[in-house]
Amino acid sequence: MYSARIVGQCDNLIKELCTFEKVCIGDTMGMARELGFKKIELLNQDALAILEDYFAGNPPFKNAKSREDFPDAFILSQIRQLSSSRIGCIVVVADKQLQNAVDSIGVETVPGLKELLVHSRVSALNVNRDYALWWVRNFGKLLKWLGSREEELSVAIEGSVFDSVINSHFSHHTFPNSVLSAEVAEVEQIRNVEYLWELAASIGEGIFTVPISFDVDCVIHAWIHALDLGSEPEWFDIDDNVIESDGFCSATGECTVSYNADLVIKYNSDFKMGIAFEAPESIGLEEVVFQDLYA
Length: 295
What we know:
The chain is of the alpha+beta class. The protein has ten helices and nine strands. It has helices at residues 4-26, 29-34, 47-56, 70-84, 96-104, 113-117, 120-126, 129-147, 150-156, 158-165, and strands at 90-92, 108-110, 169-170, 182-195, 201-204, 207-225, 237-243, 248-266, 282-294.
């Protein structure tokens, strides 16, 4: 049976760690937020597993019932839990005994911040650290800047919209049963682009997404079975003089199709917000979803 004294010591240690966190980390959180750091809350400790390691002398305990190693045990427990859901964790730990314990669970370690900053993965992130800081501080301003230049932005995204909808397929409740889907054969005009700037989200320095909706005036093509002739929408132009061997004939029609999508915009580090509109380095559409059809 585990002694109440040991459990009491664990409770006191947790309180001390929480106090330490408030005093030492509190002053740095403002700077961390500016740099885009994320604070990870402490997870629930697996006290039973820690006590089992304590009595068995498993790492990080030097030997069985080595009470002075309890702080390391709580730290190792957190690292084990956090690394299980994150790929590529690097832990800064100067204490050799704790470092060996972390290494033993398959998590990479470095002895200090100097070594962390020159690590290959971290140094790659630091290449654009000045731009990253600028991006965090000015992202809101950028959204307002683009929001006042939607007309120019809509022209800039036309190529991406075209590529996303041309040759795409969709179905509609007005189609006869035999028309499983129609294909966008031609794109004539892209209009009524609306941006939901309040839902824009940065996904890294220079890159962000914003939900949009838009209409496309287009020509669509579909195959309709001869038995359904007469039940098609009036705007369908049916070539009923040519019926294929399977009983289908070609149908085309002009209509307006509406879509929702996530617009992905990237600006490089040379970008500066000025009076004139500056086109992004790259533009793309993701999650393009058909909404409705208007004839």
